[in-house]
Amino acid sequence: MKRLFLTLALVLSVLSVMAADIVPISNAFKGGNASSLSGSMDKEVDMALPGSSKKCNANDAVSMLNTFFGGNKPTGFTVVHHADKKENGFFVGKLPTSSGEYRVNVTYRAEGNKAIIQSIRIE
Q1: Sign of CA pseudo-dihedral 56, 57, 63, 65
Q2: CA 79, CA 25: separation in Å to the nearest integer?
Q3: Cα 109 to Cα 13: distance, rounded to the nearest angstrom
């Protein structure tokens, strides 16, 4: 029985090391702080926000999010689903704002334990 618990602990620790950390991204959405995501954006990011959709560079992606947060002040953020697969992952979240609730889909690639955002879709 002791061996089983040790094996389980080892497997869980290996899985946690392999997973990219999405907490900074989640916190940025929760606080409506797009600027804090500038270091987490890939060189090109697919952005889809209500009323606009385009592939842009990291600075433009942050600017688009700032504009969105300016008109839709977040009141929280909850990750509903999260999955990692080798070097990639995604999560789905609920973003309640002053103007209603939005569904957020973020895809990323893992660089070490850091999540590098490849796409953001807010619906």
Answers
A1: positive
A2: 10
A3: 20
Residue 20 has a pLDDT of 85
Q: Which amino acid is at 31?
A: G
What are 49-79's pLDDT values in tens digits?
998 999 999 999 999 999 999 999 999 999 9
**Residue 97 pLDDT more than 90?**
yes
Number of helices and strands (H, E) in the chain? 3, 6
- ∠ at Cα 83 (117, 75), nearest 5°? 65
With cut-offs at 50, 70 and 90, classify the pLDDT of residue 14: very low
* Residue 24 CA, distance from chain mean position: 8
Q: What are phi and psi of 96, to 5 degrees?
A: -75, 135
| Confidence tier at 17 by pLDDT (50, 70, 90) | very low
If we measure between CA atoms, which residue out of 68, 40, 73 comes closest to residue 52? 68
Say how many residues make up the chain: 123
